[in-house]
Amino acid sequence: MEEILSIWKSGGWVMIPLFALAALLYSQAFLLILVARDWNLSERSSAHWWDWVRNPEHAEGRIREILDYTQNGVDTLDQVRNRFDEIRRNLIEMLDRRVIFVSMLVAASPLMGLLGTVLGMLQTFLGISTSGGTETAGVVAAGISEALVTTQTGLTIALPGLFVVMLIQRRKHALAGSLARLESLTLAYMNLEANADAKTLPIGEVTGAKQWPDAA
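^ that's the sequence the OP posted. Answer follows.
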């Protein structure tokens, strides 16, 4: 613990905003991971999706919520598409905004470390120009230490954050693909049901509009 505090002090005041930046970055990244995990539409159950589209009450997890929202109270294909678009706007765009914010924090970490490097080098040059004798070595060592510690800290914060952003991006793309597939299956089922319902009507009652069959 004492060694950690010693390294912390050797980095100068820049270590304080670096610590705050790291706390904000990883708290936001952790929340993003939880959201992406909560909305994970497992591909392992994709073989059951067609059955779940026809019987939403048999679906599991978030897929059931999506199917209930996109099928209940709708009459046309456009209404189904609109509801899927609404899900994408509320979920995918929210993930995009948060990923951009986390990416900005990741990019800021090495820049903040670079600021500490510049300040450390300035301290080094100032020490060389103003001090003499044995004091010069101490001032130069302190300035170089500050320069190296802040650079190392900034990179240490940024590199894991970069991998976290890549992981979240991957899950976001998987979620978008799953939503597109679920929408396609829902529209296909709606077409089949509308066509089957139209064939059962007397010839004079068939209309050109495709509508969602009555719940009854």
